[in-house]
Amino acid sequence: MLEVHNPADGSLVGHVHAGTEDDVNDAVRTSWEAFSLWSDTDPLDRSRILFSAARLVREDKKELSLLLTREQGKPLRESVNEIAGFARVLEYYASITGTLQGDYGYSKNYGHMMVMRQPLGVCAAIIPWNMPALIMGWKTGPVLAAGNTMVLKPSATAPLTCIALAEHLYRTGLPKQVLQLVTGSGRVVGQALARHNNIRSLSFTGAVSTGTGVAEIAAPTLKKLILELGGSDAMIVCKDADPYAAAKGAVSGRFFNCGQTCTSIKRVFVDSTVYEPFVQKVRELAETLSIGNGLSDGVDMGPVHTSGQRKDVHFLVQETVNNDQGKVLSGGYIPDTGSLKEGSFYPPTIMTGVDPDAPVMREEVFGPVLPVSAFDTVADAIDMANATRFGLGASIWTHDMRTISQATSELDAGIVWVNQHLRIPPEVPFGGVKSSGLGRENGRYALLQYLEEKTILINP
Ligand code: NDP
Q1: Which of 109, 119, 212, 296 pairs with 281 at a CA distance of 20 to 30 A?
Q2: Do 233 and 266 form a contact (C-beta atoms < 8 A)?
Q3: What global pTM score does this model have?
Q4: Residue 200 φ then ψ, to 5°
Q5: Which of 191, 162, 187, 181 is nearest to 72 (CA)?
Q6: Which residues, at least 6 apart from 4, have a Cβ–Cβ distance to it below 8 Å?
Q7: pLDDT tens digits along 213-266
Q8: How far is CA 374 from the centre of its chain?
């Protein structure tokens, strides 16, 4: 059995089975047995089940959010939004399930040329702890809508909400074999999924090093891979930006979910003429954030998910300071007083004058640290933003059309926001370039990834 603990105080939240390779093999076998039933189900019936599950999840959102906060640590308000986000993804895919179509052409030479789109079969997913409910929705929505079956491994440290969400799907008619969760560690369950010969696709979200390891193990099996490997999103603040909106955007874009989001703002580049007032405003806003147990009223930021994760974050801050590559303006310490010492808390941390090559800018810092640097020209800012192995998201804060046009075309990222950051609607593709991964979540694009084209030529 694996224990699940609340990162705010270490209390026990629940237990899950420590899955084995045999559990994975059983799940994959029964998933194939369910495949013909599910893929033959009328798309509108699949849609009805997804809509009903989304409604049930919304009805139970209070209880589901409490569970999410207890196992993950985020403030209750964020959990409520994440549970609603899961429901919204299901609703989106339920709304397009009936529109799945192939293509048709006719030529005298070849006759009727048809392209059918068929589901792949058993699809697997390995998901992390940072946004377990939303990421589960991104994986299960398109897979189930397309008529595939799924075996999903939740994170060992935040599996309980995923189990509760799957139960909501079963209660509205989804056969249990169509979506199976195998809990356990990445090393056992995750690797068994990666090397399984009878899984058609594997969608993974997590660290670059884990994702490349998964890809290596999966390569001989030739399963389709979708990898979402995080980012080091840049925010570029131009001199004409609305200073208050930009500062507010930086604070919510970095400290939301305690900075543990793949598209959190991880580097800020500010025009040197507005640098000082911007930094002061960010500091003022960050210092008003209340940190504490996500279950308490008025808390804006919970703990870092594990103490190991907090250690990594603090190490990168210290390395940057020790190398003389940036200064801590606010935060940057491990709290050792009051109730904060019971959990893995880390205060909102602002670092200024940060060298773009510093550890806090170079690595994906998965915690509440906002490093800020100045720039002289937009071209320099774009170069600094692109000088990373990641390419998930980036934002530019300006109202100048020429700058917007330059930045949206030149930033190496899968998603570019203008005057906003960290908003991910289910209708449009989401994913990265470079080391941020392969493939896309969300939108019709994700659905098409879980379908295979079959060409049919009929000579009349
Ligand atoms: P991991 O990449 O280790 O974990 C993500 C998922 O992969 C979990 O379900 C994990 O299982 C599983 N896993 C772990 N090792 C293996 C393996 N060898 N084979 C197959 N599956 C495996 O991320 P961490 O949770 O350790 O976080 C480390 C760093 O990853 C963070 O600091 C952050 O930089 C990045 N990250 C990025 C995320 C993103 O959204 N892009 C999300 C989470 C992390 P288990 O439950 O056992 O951990």
Answers
A1: 296
A2: yes
A3: 0.97
A4: -85, -30
A5: 162
A6: 12, 13, 14, 15, 16, 71, 157, 158, 159, 160
A7: 999 999 999 999 999 998 999 999 999 999 999 999 999 999 999 999 999 999
A8: 29
The size of the chain, in residues, is 460
Ligand 1 binding pocket (C-beta < 6 A) is 126-130, 153, 155-156, 185-187, 190-191, 194, 205-207, 210, 213-214, 228-230, 262, 309, 364, 366
The two tokens of residue 111 are 């006759």
Residue 196: both structure tokens together: 């399984």
Question: Ligand 1 centroid to 60 CA: how many Å?
Answer: 28
Give residue 460's pLDDT.
87
Give the residue, out of 210, 360, 441, with the most ligand 1 atoms within 8 A of its beta carbon, to mutate for a pocket test.
210
DSSP SS3 for 107: strand
> Helix (H, G, I), strand (E, B), or coil: what is residue 417?
strand
Three-point CA angle 428, 216, 133, nearest 5°: 40
Q: Read out DSSP for 360-408?
A: HHHS---SSEEEEEEESSHHHHHHHHH-SS--SEEEEE---HHHHHHHH
Phi/psi of residue 285, nearest 5 degrees: -70, -40
Name the 3-class secondary structure at 147: coil
For residue 177, give the DSSP letter: T
